[in-house]
Amino acid sequence: MDLNALFSAPQFFSAPHRRLNALTGDWVLISPHRTQRPWQGQVEKAAIDQRPAYDPTCYLCPGNTRAGGVLTPPYTSTYVFNNDFAALLPDTPQATWTSKDLIVAQAERGICRVVCFSPRHDLTLAQMDLPDIRRVVEVWSDQYEELGALPWVQHVQIFENRGALMGASNPHPHGQIWADETIPLEPAKEIARCGEYTAKSGHCLLCDYLAFELEAAARIVCANDHFVVVVPFWAVWPFETLLLTRRHVNTITDLTSDERDGLADIMRRLPIRYDNVFEISFPYSMGFHQRPTDQLAHAELHLHAHYYPPLLRSATVRKFMVGYEMLGQPQRDITPEQAADRLRALPEIHYSQRG
Ligand code: H2U
Ligand code: ZN
């Protein structure tokens, strides 16, 4: 059966259907006929993102004192520090509590860090210069290596909350890293699925998925020699994307120098497209999934990043996971193919730079 012909058949796009997330095993319900429904719900004001290059009240600007009283030094490129309000602590004593297989709890050790991407308060990854984003890639690689080398750290989660809508506590360009004693839920699901797929087929799940998307071409957003961005077939968030390495690598530390340049390039171009959707600084949470640092080989794991933006139909109308989604399963109206068409059609010059 020609899958691409099937997917492009009109009834496939117009009828409600569910799609399987091959990476996690979760399902998403797609209701394309619903995009015309009237909207009378909450309308939020568009975020105006005009900031000075230096903000004397910002905890993350060089030379300022943070909330916990620690000085942020006058850094000139990137700056990494232990989160002053860390969710996980390295010296938590080990303990487990169980009762009747019903009540189960475990102490969890960890390390939480904050990574300032730039000393400039007014920038985002979409507006930073390539060599500066490349330095951020280097920091992520070094941090993965350093934290992952700790014998008790099994997983290093690198992520960015961008924008107040995503709960970012500060507009200064920054991300976070949480190193855990156990593998968290989402990567654990992916690791299990990728392992099963490889055991059955002898192939990497994401290498096969990338080959499928390159042939289909329907969900590709942008690409370079080393990376491809797609709206995944099973996307839940309206403009969700998946960033894939073309070469099968397990970790960010495995990337060659050229691939690191390629990652910086794509991590600038994708947020530019996002910002151009509604001509605002587009909120999202993004993060990398890669090999856990649990001393196992995990050769089947394929480095990738997920971008989860919540905005739906304008700068002021976002997607909420409510009702059926909280109680049943995630659902979307605009199809992943429509979202990809829209993202693909956008220019790669940031709206603020256009005359
Ligand atoms: P988010 O914007 O993604 O919430 O990340 C900012 C982190 O920075 C947040 O976890 C930490 C918060 O705990 N932080 C400090 O460590 N010190 C400060 O002075 C302010 C914020
Ligand atoms: Zn700042």
Brief write-up:
This protein is α+β, with helices and mostly antiparallel strands and 355 residues long.
The proportion of strand residues reads 15-25%
Q: Distance N terminus to C terminus?
A: 48 Å
| The CATH class of the largest domain | Alpha Beta
Biggest sheet layout: 9 strands, antiparallel
- What ligands can be seen in this structure? 5,6-dihydrouridine-5'-monophosphate, zinc ion
Low-confidence stretches: none
Whole-angstrom Rg: 21 Å
CATH superfamily of the largest domain: HIT-like
Task: Describe the oligomeric state of these chains in a short phrase.
Answer: single chain
CATH topology of the largest domain: HIT family, subunit A
Annotation, overall tally of beta strands: 14
Q: What number is the mean pLDDT?
A: 93
Order of strands, widest sheet: 3-6-8-7-12-13-11-10-9
Elements, N to C (H/E): HHEEEEEEHEEHHEEEHEEHEH
Helical percentage = 25-40%
CATH architecture of the largest domain: 2-Layer Sandwich
Care to describe what's here?
By secondary structure, the chain is α+β, with helices and mostly antiparallel strands. The protein folds into two domains: 3-46 and 183-353, 2-Layer Sandwich (HIT family, subunit A), CATH 3.30.428.10; 67-180, HIT-like (HIT family, subunit A), CATH 3.30.428.10. It is built from eight helices and 14 strands. The protein has helices at 3-8, 10-14, 130-148, 185-201, 205-216, 257-278, 324-327, 336-345; strands at residues 17-20, 27-30, 79-82, 96-99, 103-106, 110-116, 155-162, 174-180, 220-223, 227-230, 241-245, 284-289, 304-308, 331-332. Strands 3-6-8-7-12-13-11-10-9 form a nine-stranded antiparallel beta sheet, sandwiched between helices. Zinc ion is lined by residues 55, 58, 60-61, 121, 172.
